[in-house]
Design goal:
The chain has 8 helices and 7 strands. By secondary structure, it is α/β, with parallel strands linked by helices. The chain has one domain (5-238): Rossmann fold (3-Layer(aba) Sandwich). A 7-stranded parallel β-sheet has the order 3-2-1-4-5-6-7, with helices on both faces. α3 packs parallel to α4 and α4 packs parallel to α5. The radius of gyration is 17 Å and the shape is globular.
C-alpha cells in the first residue's frame, strides 16, 4: 500500500479533506484537486509535515481542458493512479422547481455530473491499461430519496448513482472496480455553500442530533479501496443513527 496513489477531487474541505487525511495515515501517496488554492496549500503543508508524499493542483473540474491538462502534468508525480475519489460536488439553494435559479442549476449539473465525467474519462483509461484500480463516487441519499427543494441537486446525485452502476457494467472484466457511496447528513461546509455563506442558517441543519463527520464517510471509502482485488463493494449507504431517510431525522430541539 505504501506505493498506492489516490486522487481526490474537492480535497480542500469536508469529505475530501477527511479522505486525504485518512488515506495519508494508511500510507497512500496523494494527488489533491480543489478550486481553492489557499485551503489546498494548507492541507498539502499539513500532510507533508507528517511525511506524506503530496501533489496538489488547483483544478476546476467543470473545465474539461483544465482537467485534461492537470492529468497530463501528473506524470511528473506518478505514472499510475490506484484510487480515484470523485468527491467534488455541491448544492445551491432550496427553491422549488417553478422558482429555480438557472445559475444554481447549471453550477450543480456542471460540477456534480459533467465534472465527475470529465475526471473519470481522463483517469480511467490508464486504470484499464494497468488492469486495476477503483473509482469511488460520492453520491448522496438525495439521489434516490427526494426532499422539498432538493430537485436538481437530487437529480444530479441520481445521475451519479446511475453512472456508478454504468461503470460497474462498462468496466467489468478490466480489473477496475467502482464503489458508489451515498452519505446522509454530514456536517461539512455543504449547507454553508448551499446557502451561499449564510453560516447561521447552515448551522441549523445540524442541530438537535449527531450528524456524520467527513471522517465517517472517508472510512467507508477506505474500506472499499482496501478490499482484495476479487472483492467489489459496489454501493454503500451511510447515515447518522438519527437519520432514517432523507426526510426523517430524530432531532431533539
Amino acid at each position: 500500500m505504501q506505493q498506492s496513489v489516490v486522487l481526490i477531487t474537492g480535497a480542500s474541505s469536508g469529505i475530501g479533506r477527511a479522505c486525504a487525511q485518512l488515506f495519508a495515515e494508511h500510507g497512500y501517496r496523494l494527488i489533491l484537486w480543489s478550486r481553492r488554492t489557499e485551503k489546498l496549500e494548507e492541507l498539502r503543508s499539513e500532510l507533508m509535515q507528517s511525511g506524506t508524499d503530496v501533489f496538489a493542483q488547483t483544478v476546476d473540474i467543470r473545465d474539461r481542458e483544465a482537467v485534461n491538462a492537470a492529468v497530463t502534468s501528473l506524470k511528473s508525480f506518478s505514472d499510475t493512479i490506484d484510487v480515484l475519489i470523485n468527491n467534488a460536488g455541491l448544492s445551491r439553494g432550496l427553491e422549488p422547481v417553478h422558482e429555480g435559479v438557472y445559475e444554481n442549476w447549471e453550477e450543480m449539473i456542471d460540477t456534480n455530473v459533467k465534472g465527475l465525467l470529465y475526471v473519470t474519462r481522463a483517469i480511467t483509461p490508464a486504470m484499464v491499461k494497468q488492469g486495476s484500480g477503483i473509482v469511488i463516487n460520492i453520491a448522496s441519499i438525495a439521489g434516490f430519496q427526494v426532499y422539498r427543494g432538493g430537485n436538481v441537486y437530487s437529480a444530479t446525485k441520481a445521475a451519479v448513482k446511475m453512472l456508478s452502476q454504468s461503470m460497474q457494467v462498462d468496466l467489468n472484466g478490466t480489473g477496475v472496480r467502482t464503489c458508489n457511496i451515498d452519505p446522509g447528513l454530514v456536517e461539512t461546509e455543504f449547507s454553508e455553500v448551499r446557502f451561499r455563506g449564510d453560516v447561521e442558517r447552515a448551522s441549523t441543519v445540524y442541530k438537535g442530533y449527531t450528524p456524520l463527520s467527513g471522517r465517517d464517510v472517508a472510512e467507508a471509502a477506505l474500506f472499499a479501496a482496501t478490499r482484495p482485488q476479487h472483492v467489489s463493494v459496489q454501493d454503500i449507504l451511510i447515515t447518522p443513527t438519527d437519520q432514517a431517510s432523507a426526510t426523517v431525522v430524530n432531532k431533539q430541539l
